[in-house]
């Protein structure tokens, strides 16, 4: 039984927008730069669909649509009425003056973008479904598409505004999802600029030509700062009024860091056991009489502080 955000009767799934193109490394920077360079840092929505868009972005029309989709999905741009604006995350990552990772060279950024895609279902319903609701370890294309078709039909049976996604649309969405994480040039020379951006995370691997498998467990390249950012966002969505969250909620609830990052319980507990230090005491870990949970000292800590710690740690390691 589906629970969490997908079970909300008011939620409308989205299975399109990317034009079948997975996110590529330079696309977010291109989108950010065009909006940031506009007068007042505000660009009209025509930026992505007027006759000049192909020249502006240097790609075909469908790819321009994909760039727009991923920039919005990843929180680099936001829609504000009839215009686009850059966001705090976009400025932090891509600003020419202060951006910490404009060309997606840091693993922290890839993990953050994965969180943006799979942590909420609004723009990438398939991404959210697979990481948060697919319970099998090994799966094929139809193991994803079939329950999504059923979900669409169930939602449409009770929604006035129908989910207008055909079987073919869902099929293409699942194909784009798989290409986003699974290497396409195994055994051949691969140009990282053309390989989908999230492939290096290694979250899904091909076990045959049509079968795939999650890689669960510890994620050594996932910085504590990105984990803490995700923890904060999940907490505010899942239980904003609670001062504690259990290990079980952080491991198994839809939209939780455990689900989205494919951390097993041992890997999650290992991170939580050091959370007092990694969060500068914003969170506290408790393991008493078999009851394991995290408490927050502040009702609303600054998530950007957590992100900054992820990139500071990476810089320190590079310097060493």
Give a written overview of the molecule:
This protein is α+β, with helices and mostly antiparallel strands. Helices cover 44% and strands 11% of the residues. It contains 14 helices and nine strands. It has helices at 27-36, 53-57, 61-73, 88-94, 107-118, 125-133, 141-156, 167-181, 224-238, 247-252, 257-260, 265-273, 275-278, 303-319; strands at residues 42-44, 77-80, 83-86, 138-140, 204-206, 211-214, 244-246, 283-288, 291-296. The chain has a three-stranded antiparallel β-sheet. Strands 4-6-5 form a three-stranded antiparallel β-sheet. A three-stranded antiparallel β-sheet has the order 7-9-8. Strand 8 and strand 9 (291-296) form a beta hairpin. Helix 9 (224-238) packs antiparallel against helix 14. The longest helix is centred in the last third of the chain and has 17 residues, at 303-319.
Outline, from the CA principal axes? Answer: globular
Mean pLDDT: 92
The arrangement of helices and strands along the chain is HEHHEEHHHEHHEEHEHHHHEEH
Q: What can be said about the biggest beta sheet?
A: 3 strands, antiparallel
Helical region count? Answer: 14
Write the layout of secondary structure elements.
Elements: H1 27-36, E1 42-44, H2 53-57, H3 61-73, E2 77-80, E3 83-86, H4 88-94, H5 107-118, H6 125-133, E4 138-140, H7 141-156, H8 167-181, E5 204-206, E6 211-214, H9 224-238, E7 244-246, H10 247-252, H11 257-260, H12 265-273, H13 275-278, E8 283-288, E9 291-296, H14 303-319
């Amino acid at each position: 039984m589906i629970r969490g955000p997908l079970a909300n009767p008011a939620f409308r799934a989205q299975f399109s927008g990317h034009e079948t193109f997975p996110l590529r490394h330079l696309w977010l920077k291109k989108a950010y730069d065009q909006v940031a360079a506009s007068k007042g840092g505000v660009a009209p929505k025509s930026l992505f669909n007027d006759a000049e868009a192909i020249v502006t972005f240097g790609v075909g029309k469908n790819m321009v649509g994909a760039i727009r989709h991923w920039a919005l999905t990843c929180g680099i741009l936001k829609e504000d009425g009839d215009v686009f604006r850059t966001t705090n995350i976009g400025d932090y990552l891509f600003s020419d003056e202060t951006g910490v990772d404009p060309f997606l060279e840091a693993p922290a950024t890839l993990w953050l973008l994965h969180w943006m895609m799979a942590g909420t279902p609004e723009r990438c319903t398939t991404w959210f479904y697979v990481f948060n609701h697919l319970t099998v370890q090994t799966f094929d294309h139809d193991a994803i598409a079939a329950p999504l078709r059923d979900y669409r039909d169930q939602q449409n049976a009770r929604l006035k505004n129908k989910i207008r996604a055909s079987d073919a649309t869902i099929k293409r969405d699942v194909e784009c999802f798989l290409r986003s994480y699974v290497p396409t040039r195994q055994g051949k020379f691969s140009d990282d600029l053309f390989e989908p951006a999230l492939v290096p995370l290694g979250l899904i691997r091909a076990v045959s030509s049509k079968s795939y498998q999650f890689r669960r467990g510890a994620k050594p390249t996932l910085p504590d700062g990105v984990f803490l950012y995700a923890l904060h966002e999940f907490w505010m969505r899942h239980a904003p009024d609670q001062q504690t969250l259990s290990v079980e909620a952080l491991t198994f609830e839809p939209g939780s860091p455990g689900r989205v990052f494919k951390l097993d319980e041992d890997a999650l507990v290992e991170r939580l056991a050091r959370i007092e230090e990694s969060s500068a005491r914003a969170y506290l870990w408790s393991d008493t009489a078999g009851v394991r949970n995290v408490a927050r000292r502040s009702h609303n800590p600054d998530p950007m502080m957590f992100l900054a710690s992820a990139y500071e740690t990476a810089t320190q390691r590079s310097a060493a």
